[in-house]
Amino acid sequence: MSGNGTVEQVAVLGVGMHPWGKWGRNFVEYGVAAARAALDDAGIDWRDVGFVAGADTMRNGYPGYVAGATFAQALGWTGIPVTSAYGACASGAMALEAARQRILSGMCEVALVVGADTTPKGFLKPNAGERPDDPDWLRFRVLGASNPTYFALYARRRIDLFGATADDFAAVKVKNARHGLNNPYARYRKEVTAADVEASPVVASPLRLLDICATSDGGAAVVLTSMDYARRHLGGASPEVRVAAISTVTPTFPNTIIEMPEFATDSAAGIPAPERTFKQAIGDAAYAQAGLGPGDVEVAEVYDLSTALELDWYEDLGFCGPGEAEKLLRDGVTTLGGRLPVNPSGGLACFGEAVPAQALAQVCELTWQLRGEAEGRQAVTADGGHPLVGITANQGLFGHGSSVILTR
Questions:
Q1: pLDDT at position 65 over 80
Q2: Cα end-to-end distance, the chain, whole Å
Q3: pLDDT in tens, 355-364
Q4: What pLDDT sits at residue 128?
């Protein structure tokens, strides 16, 4: 591995999840189950936690807006500080960053981060009410542009710029479906063929139903501690998995690639475009913080809201050059058994999207991968070991970046 990070590391002592599905129960139930699993994994009593960070959900009433307090109350009030974070799909990373900052400031030694969601049937839509000054409301009411509309715009861009094909997109789905077969937390655990993808209905051309992730219920939690606490807790041993970086950057003006829920890009007339696109900047900031580079990464979890978007992430994270993602996929590099498995969990293709839990679920999966505990889906390095470095990537509405680098 290259270099040293610019920020002190914190330890990941415990992770836990509630399986994804369409359970139809209160989101708090999923979050509490995940939190208890993470505490058990860490061997830490709830009463020893000094801070709770909750990733908010917008679809479950006021308790979802104050998730930190909601989960602390459900686990049993102990008087500790809490916070709640919302950044759409980046909410989990924002909550994780709040916990890391609390630990690094010396204000606590043990923090619990929790995200959970209960989603309605169908694609996500704005909350009820008339809000003509809300771009997210307007894009549905004026343009009729649901999330898959934007996914299709990105897919069409990839086709126009790089010659991607529907077969390339289908190959991503086939790969991720195979990865998720043995994941006990995944909602969809069934092999998919390219013919299955082709036979599914078109949702937003060129994307078909099996190119696009579902919406799901689920929960995920992470226990972070200071390095000193981890060593004491582990009897002097160093913690196996550490957070080396958390990136929550925003776009730089002019943002020349459209972002959901905007209607247009920024004008670059007379103004030079940024050196890096928004999605490139998300990963670059994480690498800089960790003192690492794309060549150090041995496993990744990226936000495959659609099959085409996974291919974009390969390039944005520096795994290959522009227009080379399809070859990376076809060469088997990003498949389990390849040099750099991407979405060994099965990704959103197998989970569906439980918005505030998803970034934390990515961290859970990478923790298991780095420990060598991802049974049935374990990434293996060239020397037969398990990975040393993993990266997550996603982004939330209104310019919220999200990337976490874990090392061991």
A1: yes
A2: 11
A3: 999 999 999 9
A4: 82
Q: How many domains does the chain fold into?
A: 1
In terms of DSSP H, where are the helices of 268-354?
Answer: 278-290, 307-316, 325-330, 347-351
CA distances from 195 to 174, 208, 347 (A): 10, 12, 20
Distance CA 356, CA 56 (A): 6
Residues 216 and 349 sit within 8 Å (Cβ to Cβ): no
Please say whether the beta carbons of 243 and 250 come within 8 A: no
Cα–Cα distance, 344 to 373 (Å, whole number): 12
Q: How many helices (H) and strands (E) does the chain have?
A: 14, 11
Q: Write out the E strands in 142-270.
A: 202-204, 207-208, 217-225, 242-247
The reported pTM is: 0.96
For residue 340, CA distances in Å to 105, 301, 331, 391 come to 34, 11, 11, 11
33-37, 264-268, 363-367: which range is least confident on average?
264-268
Judge if the upstream peptide bond of residue 254 is cis by omega within 30 degrees of 0.
yes
Is 315 a member of any domain?
yes
Residues 23-32 have pLDDT tens digits of: 999 999 999 9
Q: Which residues of 97-125 are buried (b: 16+ CB within 10 A; e: fewer)?
A: bbbbbbbeeeebbbbbbbbbbbbeeebbe
3-state secondary structure of 12: strand
**Phi, psi angles (nearest 5°) of residue 220:** -145, 150
Three-state secondary-structure class, residue 225:
strand
Q: What is the pLDDT of residue 2?
A: 40
- What is the span of the domain harbouring residue 352? 10-407
pLDDT at 129: 86
Q: Does the residue 1 lie in any domain?
A: no
CATH number at residue 199: 3.40.47.10
